[in-house]
Amino acid sequence: MGQYEKSAKELLEHVGGSDNISVVTHCATRMRFVLNDDKKADKDKIENMDIVKGTFTNAGQFQIIIGNEVAKFYNEFTEIAGVGDASKSEAKQAAKQNLTFLQRLISNLAEIFTPIIPALVVGGLILGFRNIIGDIPEFGPNNDQALIELSQFWQGTFDFLWLIGEAIFHFLPVGIVWSITRKMGTTQILGIVLGLTLVSPQLLNAYGVAEATEIPAWDFGFATVDMIGYQAQVIPAIMAGFVLAYLEIWLRKVIPNVVSMIFVPFFALLPAVLIAHVVLGPIGWVIGDWISDVVFTGLTSSFGWLFASLFGFAYAPLVITGLHHMTNAIDLQLMSLFDGTNLWPMIALSNIAQGSAVVGMIILNKRDKEEQQVSVPAAISCYLGVTEPAMFGINLKYGFPFLAGMIGSSIAAVISVGSGVMANSIGVGGLPGFLSIQAQHWLMFFVAMAVAIAVPIALTLTLAKTKMGHNAYERLGKK
């Protein structure tokens, strides 16, 4: 008898049996099911299993949080259930059959940015470190010099690190177009080439367009095309990437296999590059500027506190729906226009607030050893930027801690936006997030962090004594 045989058989029964499983796979902590009939899954019984930390449905997949032992459990489950092993891509394709158009759009956006997020996080940390050694005049005999003014070592380090920062952010379109071709199953090297044509040194750098007295152009005799680069631009890269991918997919259907290796790349790449620079680039630039201006103006206007409070309150529910992935594109667009983003600090604060609500539950349930096995790791992972165990395993299960986290996040967001806190880039969405904050804003971000920690803990302890808290405990059989 395997270690998890009993639990695997129990779970199989509760999800509706093998016949109800279309696809099953797993990630670092979760089992991901695409079920033929979601109604056959008994969520209450599944959540009462000892091995299960929580459940939720997202992107058409019924997901069950198991924890670090998920891989071993998954192996025993698939053997007992008699279902074949499936890749994550197969699971996503099957799940998309259950999605609406808007959900598919958001899912596609998430799949584009997920592979490049590690680079963006690294870039944010590097920019933050450069900010510390290059822009803080708090060193030297009179505490009025930056580190780069005091030491050639720090000056060299400052200059060297920009090699990585430039590669990540200035050449971001390359990563975006590559990610689109990867997602669409088309030729990835063509995506890289298209991305490079958007940031070629031949072109006028996007950061220099506003100050340029004359825009260079390609002259075709009957028409001219501006030679403008799209460094750090998100929307032009997304639009160009999809044009390339769909062109290649169509060409592979109409061009014979015998000559496809020659003609498909040529007739896909050449028109895509031309369309990108003549049509999509200028249009995407205008759209991106418009979105960024609206968000930035909203956050810095006299009503910025209202925008911040609503975003801080609503971000955690957005995570449940998957809509939070849309903020990545907005953050990157803000960075390209304003040398930073005032949106991302609120995201980090929301994660901290949800983790703090779990800390409140740890205090409330300090005598419940079984609950502590779930809540303590969940709080730690949430403070490090992974919110799912906290939100789905604890906060949503009880309800009132989730609300406490939302309120704490809202207040912290108002403080962050009201004091003008800016991040260099997307970073680690938890306590280490301060490393991505521009150094001159650290103090106020720490104040906002303190609020995001204290308020949810206090509110969780308070709400537990109300009718909402009592009802939650009774519903879960805790009292």
TrEMBL record:
<keyword id="KW-0813">Transport</keyword>
<keyword id="KW-1003">Cell membrane</keyword>
<dbReference type="InterPro" id="IPR050558">
    <property type="entry name" value="PTS_Sugar-Specific_Components"/>
</dbReference>
<keyword id="KW-0418">Kinase</keyword>
<feature type="transmembrane region" description="Helical">
    <location>
        <begin position="402"/>
        <end position="422"/>
    </location>
</feature>
<feature type="transmembrane region" description="Helical">
    <location>
        <begin position="112"/>
        <end position="133"/>
    </location>
</feature>
<feature type="domain" description="PTS EIIC type-1">
    <location>
        <begin position="107"/>
        <end position="479"/>
    </location>
</feature>
<dbReference type="Pfam" id="PF00367">
    <property type="entry name" value="PTS_EIIB"/>
</dbReference>
<dbReference type="InterPro" id="IPR001996">
    <property type="entry name" value="PTS_IIB_1"/>
</dbReference>
<dbReference type="GO" id="GO:0016301">
    <property type="term" value="F:kinase activity"/>
</dbReference>
<feature type="transmembrane region" description="Helical">
    <location>
        <begin position="230"/>
        <end position="251"/>
    </location>
</feature>
<feature type="transmembrane region" description="Helical">
    <location>
        <begin position="160"/>
        <end position="180"/>
    </location>
</feature>
<feature type="transmembrane region" description="Helical">
    <location>
        <begin position="303"/>
        <end position="323"/>
    </location>
</feature>
<dbReference type="InterPro" id="IPR003352">
    <property type="entry name" value="PTS_EIIC"/>
</dbReference>
<feature type="active site" description="Phosphocysteine intermediate; for EIIB activity">
    <location>
        <position position="27"/>
    </location>
</feature>
<keyword id="KW-1133">Transmembrane helix</keyword>
<dbReference type="GO" id="GO:0009401">
    <property type="term" value="P:phosphoenolpyruvate-dependent sugar phosphotransferase system"/>
</dbReference>
<dbReference type="InterPro" id="IPR036878">
    <property type="entry name" value="Glu_permease_IIB"/>
</dbReference>
<dbReference type="GO" id="GO:0090589">
    <property type="term" value="F:protein-phosphocysteine-trehalose phosphotransferase system transporter activity"/>
</dbReference>
<keyword id="KW-0812">Transmembrane</keyword>
<dbReference type="InterPro" id="IPR013013">
    <property type="entry name" value="PTS_EIIC_1"/>
</dbReference>
<keyword id="KW-0762">Sugar transport</keyword>
<dbReference type="GO" id="GO:0008982">
    <property type="term" value="F:protein-N(PI)-phosphohistidine-sugar phosphotransferase activity"/>
</dbReference>
<protein>
    <submittedName>
        <fullName>PTS system trehalose-specific IIB component, Glc family /PTS system trehalose-specific IIC component, Glc family</fullName>
    </submittedName>
</protein>
<keyword id="KW-0598">Phosphotransferase system</keyword>
<dbReference type="GO" id="GO:0015574">
    <property type="term" value="F:trehalose transmembrane transporter activity"/>
</dbReference>
<keyword id="KW-0808">Transferase</keyword>
<dbReference type="InterPro" id="IPR018113">
    <property type="entry name" value="PTrfase_EIIB_Cys"/>
</dbReference>
<feature type="transmembrane region" description="Helical">
    <location>
        <begin position="442"/>
        <end position="464"/>
    </location>
</feature>
<feature type="transmembrane region" description="Helical">
    <location>
        <begin position="258"/>
        <end position="283"/>
    </location>
</feature>
<feature type="transmembrane region" description="Helical">
    <location>
        <begin position="189"/>
        <end position="210"/>
    </location>
</feature>
<dbReference type="InterPro" id="IPR011296">
    <property type="entry name" value="PTS_IIBC_treh"/>
</dbReference>
<dbReference type="Pfam" id="PF02378">
    <property type="entry name" value="PTS_EIIC"/>
</dbReference>
<feature type="domain" description="PTS EIIB type-1">
    <location>
        <begin position="5"/>
        <end position="87"/>
    </location>
</feature>
<keyword id="KW-0472">Membrane</keyword>
<dbReference type="GO" id="GO:0005886">
    <property type="term" value="C:plasma membrane"/>
</dbReference>
